[in-house]
Amino acid sequence: MDEKEIFIDTSYEGYTFVGAQYGRFTPQGETRERDYYNIFVVSRFSESGNNHTVGVKAEKLKCVSSDVWIGLKPGDEVMISFDRFGRVQQVGKVD
Description:
Layout: E1 15-25, E2 34-44, E3 56-62, E4 77-82, E5 88-93
Antiparallel strand pairs: 1-2, 1-4, 2-3, 4-5
């Protein structure tokens, strides 16, 4: 992947895609490998009460497959849909 500078608009209230990772692992206590798919995003903090923040928060989100990030580039502003298990099932670029 080519390294490049990305711009993160901290006024955007959704997610900004910054990367993805996939592979296989063997869960502790098991012998069979499992696939994993993750995307990494940053987003604004929400403030309430005595909660004060600076900057943006970074999150790793589990995905149903690597298909969810096809066509995305680091720095893309995105909208995310989750399945009933909390995994990312669809990611769409915001124009």
